[in-house]
Design a protein that fits this description.
With about 400 residues, the chain is an alpha/beta fold. About 40% of the residues lie in helices and about 15% in strands. The protein has helices at about 15-25, 30-35, 75-80, 85-105, 120-130, 135, 160, 165-180, 190-195, 240-250, 255, 270-280, 295-300, 315-325, 355-365, 370-385, 385-400; strands at about 1-5, 35-45, 50, 115-120, 140-145, 185-190, 205, 230-235, 260-265, 285-290, 305-310, 330, 345-350.
Length: about 400
């Protein structure tokens, strides 16, 4: 039986997309085992999570990170987002230091994995830096959650650094190049991302769709009430587009607003600004903020439309969760999103206030939420985004190395 380990330089308690990908692997460890692979552990900067002792990644949401920008209110007032010192501070505290700890934790753990899957290039960089002979005995794979362009996910968070290309190259891009040269395989989440990653040789890259386990019982909601329930799930971090949604909502005529209700699940640096905008424009009756939740599936089962006007994505787990419960999908064309949506149950929109407002109006006026739409959304999940399909594809890739 071959052994698989994931190394990720982020606490497993953080509520974010990659940890939900890690969670899906833990839930599907029996599929790996059926394919001759033992999924042994996830190694983070804080712990070695032994997969055989757990049925899921039960750490998610257990505690807040030690260092977050929500706790930096004073710094946020003093430093602009594009200030270079702020970028250095975030890069070191949130990415480099935790990744270094995760790599060293694996190297001192005594685990001898046949395959290592890195969630992020920083942990891989330190693994190669400190790993010595271990690096030559293990097949190494990295899962790139971007849209194919280098550091597309980090640029909004490290604006100050990317204002100076020579610094970005020295601190990030050169490290990234070294890591990707030594990888046996780079996994993207969509064919679009593979094509966009022109800096990676064709022989080294492929794509595998994300996948999640089905729920025990799924009953597709029937829209019976007067209001259409919209939901957006994701960190409020300037990238997902919740600010655009509330601005669009404010432009709608009262006769449309009275027929809808928006639900926001998640928190982050933009949370206060968005909630204040809603209050200042007297829209509280049309919006609910749920904060960080561990029962997203329970919330989704009462929703009609999932909306995600994000600026950059890989293949959002939140959209897969929404399709699993038959929701109509509205999202921007980024990453692999276009490969996740059919016109039978959703629409791709421009990332703008006007496009969001027009789409909401169209859904309300033209009664887009039907039983046929819900069935099409659910069937797409079953046929393309199930956990078994995902893990079978990963197993085949690992065993081919």
């Amino acid at each position: 039986m071959k052994k698989l380990v994931i190394i990720y330089g982020v606490p497993l308690t953080q509520v974010q997309g990659v940890n939900y990908v890690n969670d899906s692997f833990v839930r599907g460890k029996h599929y790996f085992r059926d394919n001759g692979i033992e999924f042994e552990a996830i190694v983070s900067n804080e712990e070695v999570f032994e997969c055989n002792k757990h049925n899921c990644l039960d750490r998610i949401g257990a505690s807040k990170p030690k260092f977050t920008f929500m706790k930096e209110s004073r710094l946020r007032r003093e430093l602009k987002d594009n200030f270079i010192l702020r970028s250095f501070l975030r890069l070191f505290k949130s990415f480099l230091l935790p990744s270094k700890k995760a790599a060293k934790r694996y190297l001192s753990s005594g685990i001898n994995a046949d395959f290592i899957l890195f969630q992020g290039s920083f942990a891989a960089y330190y693994f190669f830096k400190y790993g010595g002979d271990v690096c030559n005995k293990t097949k190494v794979v990295i899962m790139d959650h971007s849209d194919g362009a280098p550091y597309s996910m980090l640029r909004p968070q490290l604006k100050g650094l990317f204002r100076y290309p020579f610094l970005a190259k020295a601190l990030l891009i050169n490290k990234d190049k070294l890591v990707y040269e030594r990888m046996d395989k780079i996994i993207y989440l969509s064919s679009k991302a593979v094509k966009a990653a022109r800096h990676i040789p064709a022989s080294k890259k492929t794509y595998i769709f994300n996948g999640i386990e089905d729920l025990p019982q799924v009953t597709l909601k029937k829209h019976l009430d007067d209001k259409i329930q919209f939901v957006c799930v994701g960190s409020m971090n300037y990238r997902k587009g919740q600010d655009l949604i509330v601005e669009a909502l404010n432009t709608l005529p009262d006769e449309i607003k009275k027929k809808i209700h928006f639900h926001f699940v998640g928190s982050g640096p933009q949370m206060n600004a968005i909630s204040k905008y809603v209050q200042n424009h007297q829209m509280d009756e049309y919006v609910t903020f749920w904060g960080v939740r561990n029962d997203v599936s329970d919330i989704l089962k009462n929703m009609d439309v999932f909306m995600l006007p994000s600026s950059s994505e890989g293949m959002p787990m939140s959209i897969i969760e929404a399709e699993r419960q038959g929701l109509y999908i509205v999202a921007s064309d980024t990453g692999g999103v276009k490969e996740m949506i059919s016109e039978d149950f959703g629409t791709i929109i421009d990332r703008s206030v006007s496009a969001i407002a027009e789409t909401i109006t169209d859904i309300v006026v033209n009664n887009r939420i039907t039983s046929e739409v819900r069935e099409a959304s659910r069937n797409f999940y079953l046929n393309h985004l199930s956990l078994k399909n995902n893990i079978d594809a990963f197993s085949k890739m690992f065993l081919s190395l």
